[in-house]
Amino acid sequence: MASDLEAKAKEAFVEDHFELAVDLLSQAIHLEPNKAELYADRAQGNIKLNNLTEAVADANKAIELNPSLPKAYLRKGTACMKLEEYQTAKAALETGASLSPDNSRFVNLIKECDKLIEESYTTIPIQEKTIAQDVNPKDVQQQDDLPEQPPVAVNKPKYRHEFYQKHDQVVVTIFAKKIPKESITVEFGEQILSVSINVPGEDAYVFQPRLFGKILPSNCRYEVLSTKIEIRLEKAEPIHWTSLEFTRNVIVPLRVNASSVTASQRPSYPSSKQTRDWDKIEAQVKKEEKDEKLDGDAALNKFFREIYQDADEDTRRAMKKSFVESNGTVLSTNWKEVGSKKVEGSPPDGMELKKWEY
């Protein structure tokens, strides 16, 4: 039965009915889930339909089932090139070429891949227009006149995921409880994360985003825990990801400089009118306090504060003890003198020390 479906799929390819071909191959895979050729052929159909992440997943499955199948590497290389995953594509194509040295398609694609890799290092990114810049007010008016479309039902993903990031790393968490480790497959490309969960008796879960930025696959890792799968992606560049998945609406990625964020730096807090430099204000206040000319008790209090601020621990203890025990009439800095006895009050001449009753 699977062979009949495979034959019909080949006829659909000849007639450029790629959706039908993919559907027929999916039925064949359901009957023969361990036949690598079926996955490799479905990868070709997904490439034709521009379902590139699905094509990479099919090619990877074919390679897993039959590591010596050249066309599986050809499909993976082709899909990765379209995804601008040139390093991953080249690695797959070189492996395929070693298995099929007489196939000129591998040689030609590797040359093209080398050219694209070189261009990717020399091309200057061009600022793209934002969506708001492309909107014509007349178009908005015309859209408002269109009849309201009925809401489209969206299938809720089987497992929830979220991510957070550091300057050099992105951590992706997939909340899947009590999944056996052998049922989970995680693969890393230059800009692709592929996660598959195949639990017997349940529908397969596949999460294959094209990532916001490039990563270093060799430095990425994952861990299967009792309640989740934690995936750590090493960024190829220290830029801020505004989302987990790739989008063409980003103008310029924000580059994060790790050395610029230190504990000694303080943030500038926004006000309603302008941004203030609080470090500068603090320094100015300290300078004004230092240069301030005071008279009488204010000058005396300032003098005592400066003594206390620069004093050692014994001097501070002496000042506190003498001041408290004398009811504010004596201030000593000699701990040896006041530490072993109670300090009696000493009011100024002509004044009497009075104890308050509560």
From TrEMBL:
SUPFAM superfamilies: HSP20-like chaperones (SSF49764), TPR-like (SSF48452). GO terms for molecular function: protein-folding chaperone binding. InterPro entries: CS_dom, HSP20-like_chaperone, SGS_dom, Sgt1-like, TPR-like_helical_dom_sf, TPR_rpt. Residues 156-245 form the CS domain. It comes from the Eukaryota. One of its GO terms (biological process) is response to stress. TPR repeats lie at residues 36-69, 70-103. CDD domains: p23_CS_SGT1_like. This is Protein SGT1 homolog. It comes from Phaseolus vulgaris.
